[in-house]
Amino acid sequence: MTLNRDDRKLAKRLLRGDQAAFDEYFGRAFPAAYRFALVRLGDETLAEEVAQDTLCRAMRKLHTYRGEAALMTWTLTLCRRRMSDMMAKLGRSLEVPFEDLDDVLRSALESICEPEGPEAHVERGELASFVRSALDRLSERHRFVLEAKYLRELSVRDIARELDTTEKATESLLTRARASFREAFVLLGATTPGTLEVRS
Length: 200
Hints:
Elements: H1 2-15, H2 19-41, H3 44-61, H4 71-90, H5 103-110, H6 122-136, H7 140-150, H8 156-163, H9 167-187
């Protein structure tokens, strides 16, 4: 749990008002939230607004962070909720382009980022529960690389840099992580026809 332990340490420093910690967090979180919002909203102004609101909310809710997921994943969960709220007020639906990505795995992972509330579908909540359980069964490294790829939307090159390894090794790690996730998902009994057609 080294990766999340480091995030918990960063969160504690942020709560103490450590300026260096804030600079570190902001330097990673704002670009990630902005890219995450821009690809979904298609509007630079709205994406910037969402990213700013997300970081403000993250700082207000930081005391609730327990390190169960990576700090960036937790932040992007807040980002998605903010986008959903914004789209609801504008009377628009949140469209997510997934043309060149693994739709099934991304959809499964993003189910844990769906906003909670009475309007949420029961099926979606059940899927989120299975996804969390499946992720819990993975190694920290596999969980990290899946979150980086499908939630933070990092390129293989950027993930390789964070892991201090080669792009080829990262591609191999992603392939193994996808397979591990699929196996965990099946073992939990969450499979339905076509659900786990996950491409490597």
